[in-house]
Write a structure and sequence with these properties.
The protein has helices at 5-19, 28-41, 45-53, 84-96, 111-118, 135-138, 141-155, 157-164, 168-179, 204-223, 246-264, 314-330, 337-350, 355-372, and strands at residues 20-22, 60-65, 74-79, 126-132, 183-186, 189-193, 228-234, 237-242, 269-272, 278-281, 284-288, 293-297. By secondary structure, the protein is α+β, with helices and mostly antiparallel strands.
């Protein structure tokens, strides 16, 4: 659908105003020159040259529609492509990789949650989740710079300079300039992001992981004093598993939330309680009873799989079926395994996948599992 011009600008203005503010009297060419000159002062001629050659003085801004929300509001999307921030971000990213992310909670997929639950059959767990609101938009600049300064100190200032060719002071100056140069241009005006790091930044994931690792280490010490037996974090989502009875669960949650608010300040956290004794985390639905804990592969997203009528090869479509069945098998407990497989079969059939193909893939997977024992 094509939006009327007036409605488009209204939605766009609302989206921009939620994240950016107008920046009056700013000369973007001077900002780029400042970055270039700083690189020259730090004896980084190649980086200075690349920044000077960059086509764009600001970040790229465009919009997508939140179709799942009432009124279909716009979401702002930012990209560093062809900007001088992209060149500086690449340089910083290469150096940030030197720092290990020592985080007791961080995971990369739901498989680690499944492995933990498998190790505790029959355990009477309770759980709830915590979410960091607008993580990238909320990362505190001072906190980030202090965190990276500590990372350099742990690595060693001299080894860092010998490895990177830049002093710790110079690196922090470049990082500070980068995270405060979140300029975009729209409708004849220049805007700057109100807070945090650009969501389109190439180093935002590195910065958030390093800062949250610091917070999580402090959390880990304090949570040990409560009934929390395991904590998982995926980007900005936490899953906390507690061993307590239903009567004390709510009070324990409130205590844990208070600790999170203290340790993660100034980040803002929200939480989600179980509904009908079940909670969702990543692509899992975890259910609790008095006798055991169940888990089932059940992605939150209702996005359909690739339609069978697409022009993709048969091999690709067979791989999609195999992936759906594999996830159901590996990420569902034996109590709900049959229902999980059935749900994936129905999901595939809705997109036109013939039952003969589903049976063929299932039989092949069964033979392989039988052969491997």
């Amino acid at each position: 659908a094509v939006l009327p011009r007036g409605l488009y600008f209204e939605k766009a203005h609302q989206a921009i105003s939620s994240v950016f503010r107008v920046c009056e009297g700013i000369n973007l060419a001077k900002i780029r020159s400042r970055a270039k000159n700083l690189c020259s002062e730090l004896d980084l001629p190649v980086l200075a040259r690349e920044i000077g050659k960059s086509d764009k003085l600001s970040l790229n801004l465009f919009f997508t529609t939140k179709t799942h929300k009432e009124g279909a509001p716009f979401r702002t999307i930012v990209s560093e492509r062809n900007s001088w921030q992209y060149e500086l971000g690449r340089f910083l990213q290469d150096k940030l990789k030197l720092f290990p992310v020592e985080d007791p909670f961080r995971i990369f997929n739901s498989g680690e949650v499944v492995n933990f639950l498998k190790q505790h059959p029959g355990a009477r767990f309770r759980a709830f989740s915590i979410d960091i609101k607008d993580l990238y938009y909320s990362l505190p600049h001072e906190g980030l710079l202090a965190c990276i300064d500590e990372c350099i100190d742990s690595f060693g200032a001299v080894p860092f300079q010998n490895t990177t060719g830049i002093s710790s002071k110079g690196f922090l100056e470049l990082l500070s300039l980068y995270i405060t140069s979140t300029f975009v241009e729209w409708n004849g005006k220049t805007y700057i992001q109100k807070e945090g790091v650009s969501i389109g930044s190439s180093i935002a994931p590195f910065l958030s992981d390093l800062l949250l690792a610091k917070f999580d280490r402090a959390l880990n010490v304090k949570l040990g004093e409560l009934s929390v037996v395991k904590t998982f974090r995926y980007v900005d989502d936490y899953l906390l598993i507690l061993r307590c009875d239903l009567e004390t669960f709510h009070s324990k949650v409130m205590q844990v939330l208070q600790i999170f608010r203290e340790c993660l300040y100034p980040l803002v956290v929200t939480h989600e309680m179980p509904e009908r004794n079940s909670i969702r985390f990543l692509d899992l639905k975890i259910s609790f009873s008095e006798n055991h804990t169940c888990w089932c592969y059940e992605p939150r997203s209702q996005k359909p799989v690739l339609p069978f009528s697409s022009a993709h090869s048969k091999l690709v479509k067979r791989g999609i079926v195999q992936s759906c069945f594999h996830n159901a098998l590996e990420r569902s407990c034996h109590h709900v395994l049959e229902a999980s497989l059935l749900a994936q079969s129905e999901r595939l059939e809705r997109e036109g996948y013939p039952r003969t193909l589903l049976i063929s893939v299932a039989e092949a997977m069964h033979r392989k599992r039988k052969r491997l024992g």
